[in-house]
Write a structure and sequence with these properties.
The chain has 215 residues and is an alpha/beta fold. The protein has eight helices and eight strands. A hairpin with a 5-residue loop joins strand 5 and strand 6 (138-140). It starts with a strand and ends with a helix. It binds adenosine monophosphate. Adenosine monophosphate binds at residues 12, 34-35, 38, 55-56, 59-62, 67, 87-88, 90, 94, 164, 173.
Length: 215
């Protein structure tokens, strides 16, 4: 895999995280999810965790300066590797911030892939989503329920529902997505870098489609 900088965009619950994990495991990408980074800071009760907790649990966007601070720290260690950005950039200033840090090393975002899904499907998927507290694996009570209720099939850890996966918060996250993240699609589209995939195709077909795009 060449040192590609790939951005995965899509509404919450479109399957970006699942695709990003597949691309990490099978194709050697470094998977960088700002949402995972923030949840980790919150659970470690770090200074960044204290700054972002209220935003993350209520589904509002963390301010751009805080986001770019953690991204720049990550980039200092990882720039030049094949990186897959999941859930970032979510605003135009974040997209510009990413371009700036890449340009300093004569790099750029190579492609932005939109994994698209209608709002009602997002709500159906996310209210049934559960995550393992121990290994972080995501499962869905509708598509692939765990063998034992509340227990992770992979590691036996406890499955929990994210505080931001309740219907009211999901609707708020969707409206934030439409207002603040959709302009980022336009940003990449005008640069000829945006590709769209129908998230309703399901995990395996979406993955094949992404492989075809980046081949
Ligand atoms: P996610 O796991 O990507 O759905 O992110 C969960 C939450 O973390 C979001 O609802 C935001 O509160 C916060 N977050 C994650 N990534 C970003 C970002 N790039 N910009 C602002 N807030 C973010």
């Amino acid at each position: 895999m060449k040192a590609m900088n790939l951005v995965l965009i899509g509404p919450p619950g479109s399957g970006k995280g699942t695709q990003a994990e597949l691309l990490r495991e099978k194709n050697g990408f470094v998977h960088y999810s700002t949402g995972d980074v923030f949840r980790d800071h919150i659970s470690r009760k770090s200074a960044v965790g204290a700054k972002v907790e209220e935003y993350v649990t209520s589904g509002r966007l963390v301010p751009d300066d805080v986001v770019l601070e953690v991204v720049n720290a990550f980039m200092a260690e990882n720039i030049g590797k094949p990186i897959l950005f999941d859930g970032f950039p979510r605003t135009i200033p974040q997209a510009e911030g990413l371009d700036k840090v890449l340009a300093a090393k004569k790099l750029a975002v190579d492609m932005a892939v939109l994994v698209d899904l209608p709002d009602d499907e997002v709500v159906t998927r996310l209210t049934a989503r559960r995550q393992c507290r121990k290994c972080g694996k995501i499962c869905n009570l509708t598509f692939k329920p765990p063998t034992v209720a509340g227990v992770c099939d992979d590691c036996g850890g406890e499955l929990y529902q994210r505080k931001d996966d309740t219907e009211t918060v999901i609707r708020d996250r969707l409206s934030t997505y439409h207002q603040q993240t959709e302009p980022v699609l336009h940003y990449y589209s005008t640069q000829g870098k945006l590709k769209r995939i129908d998230g309703a195709l399901g995990r395996d077909k979406v993955y094949q489609e992404i492989l075809r795009l980046i081949a």
